[in-house]
Amino acid sequence: MPKKKIIYTHEHPYHVMARSNNKEWFYLPIEICWPIFIAALKATKQKYGLGIYEFVLMDNHYHMICQCSEKHKLGEAMNFLQKTTSNAINKKANRINHVYGGPYKATLIREPSHFAEIFKYVARNPVKAGITPIVEKYKYSTINSADITVLTDDEWFADIPVNRTEWLNIPFEEEKYISIQRALKRTEFKLAKRTRFD
Under CATH, which number does the domain 14-183 receive? Predict the structure, then answer.
């Protein structure tokens, strides 16, 4: 089955994920990769008007919720971001290999309720991986970093509770988590009515 094409729009946000080559760790320690990604994100914001709601860097992948401008499609911004981070990591690591294992994956988000679920899913990625016990302890996340200005106040946050930190630290039920995980593999986020455990 051919892969469905990304739906391009500036009216809705996207969840974007990209993984390092062979699912190995990035060539550099995460504390060195973090400022590289922050600098690249700032450059992408300035050049392509990419709005960032959330960004979480892991050892071998990243998650981002973002929204593109009217003037530039998501593909333009993401190609710049991927190329910029790849070149910077390779230069610092003195390597020439591919940094990413393939193209980024983007999922369109149409509903504020879905935005809230994905926002929590992204924030809890380090907790789910067993790296940190609580969301606010993870350093390489825009939730806990002032290194870059993120979008915070608009309709997309309508379904996120005021006590955000407490809410983020309440885990999903496993069936819900798997349902979100599967929906993020589609070009448009749609939760299955029922999750089957294989």
Answer: 3.30.70.1290
Domain boundaries in the chain? Answer: 14-183
Of 67, 70, 52, 78, the C-alpha closest to 152 is 52
Tens digit of each residue's pLDDT, the chain (198 residues): 445 677 888 999 999 999 886 566 677 789 999 999 999 999 999 999 999 999 999 988 999 999 999 999 999 999 999 999 999 988 887 777 777 877 899 999 999 999 999 999 999 999 999 999 999 999 999 999 888 999 987 889 999 999 999 999 999 999 999 999 999 999 999 987 654 444
Joined together, the tokens standing for residue 4 give 């469905």
Collapsing DSSP states into helix, strand and coil, what is residue 87?
helix
Q: Is the dihedral of CA 173, 167, 143, 48 positive or negative?
A: positive
